[in-house]
Fold this sequence. Notes:
By secondary structure, the protein is of the alpha/beta class. It folds into 3 domains: 4-145 and 272-332, FAD/NAD(P)-binding domain; 149-269, FAD/NAD(P)-binding domain (3-Layer(bba) Sandwich), CATH 3.50.50.60; 352-455, FAD/NAD-linked reductase, C-terminal dimerisation domain (Enolase-like, domain 1). It contains 14 helices and 24 strands. A hairpin with a 5-residue loop joins strand 23 and strand 24 (405-412). The longest helix has 25 residues, at 80-104.
Amino acid sequence: MADAFDVIVIGSGPGGYVTAIRASQLGLRTAIVERSELGGICLNWGCIPTKALLKSGEVYEQLDHLKDYGLAVEKKAFDFDAVVKRSRKVAAQLNSGVAFLMKKHKIEVVEGFAKLEKGSPAPTVVVGDRKLTAKHVIVATGARARTIPAIGLEPDGERIWTYREALVPKAAPKTLVVIGSGAIGMEFASFYRALGSEVTVVEMMPRILPVEDEEVSKAAHKSFEKRGIRFRVPASVKKLSKTAKGVALEIEAAGKAETLEADVCIVAVGIVGNVEDMGLEALGVKIDRTHIVTDSHGGTGVPGLYAIGDVAGPPWLAHKASHEGVHCVEHIAGLKPTNLTSPIPGCTYTTPQVASVGLTEAQAKEQGLDPKVGRFPFRVNGKAIAAGETDGFIKTVFDGRTGALIGAHMIGHEVTEMVQGFAIAMTLEATEAELQATVFPHPTMSEAMHESALDAYGKALHI
């Protein structure tokens, strides 16, 4: 049958399209269903276009420091429309790249919204007037921005934005309030501040970037304030409303009521899984707070039905979705799949950048471990000094009993390009002895990684 497959993947984000490619590589006849754009939110409206915007903001902001490098320009200016167009062009390039990969791997792309009906050996996938059958169906529908209409936290496309509206505005707002200080909120705060917007970030937790190690969180707060970003932390949001000229945000901070006024507000208070109207509940799929409950291989408990990525719960990261998808389809194929519990790094592409993997110092203590902690600042790293990028540090956390690396936390220039070194080390179950014996190239900022591992055991050489 033309509409019979071995594997059907619903959703073509980094989880879905990577899963489909791996399925095809394993010789499984594969289809992928996408209701909107190939590449999903990440490639089109998330990870990739935001990084293009952030790069423009970073370069523009660096113009203020040209004198430090013995350089000068006659006039500093930006074309906001061109900045946004470049971001969209980057997204379009990657979207076409996914289309090429689908064609290369002979994966059938089915356009439309997928609904699931009872079937055997897996649920039937209904897309428009087509009924697709498969031995295995993998849900990779991702998630979307969380809104709270009851207190006005709902986008209107003009003054109240989620990440989607924040990517394609007509102009940079003069004043901006960001609700939420996670990666999404802080990245947009960082970008718009770089272009001159007056930015205030409101966070209900006791500190910004609350999932990060506390030392990194505090250092980030200090760095962002130096760049002119204001914070209300902790603060509870009572109501967001429109005014004649913009928005008014009613908050309570330190026991006092306050109203923040701005041209625009960005709502970045989390995400919800895309689980509606697919027929999941009728099949018996368990859903917990908008996310599909799965087992260690992505199984939902419904025969032949799996779920991976953001729709299957935290951490809500593109690379986690890809990793889960590969694991899931290799399990389906009867292979010994990749380790699902491999350490998952997290990255925030602000200025300065933040990256981490594994346990924080506090989490290690909560788990009854005896952490040995090392730190090394970039201010004494030769490459950082030469580059004028001395802000930040690297912190490593080892198990005092075994010497195993159990966590690494970084803030500074391009640390998102360094954290994978620690992720590899943790995946290979490296100890302090192996990291200390590793030869790091000089001069590089990565030498701070080595020094941090040395410092945990009182052996740091350059401080």
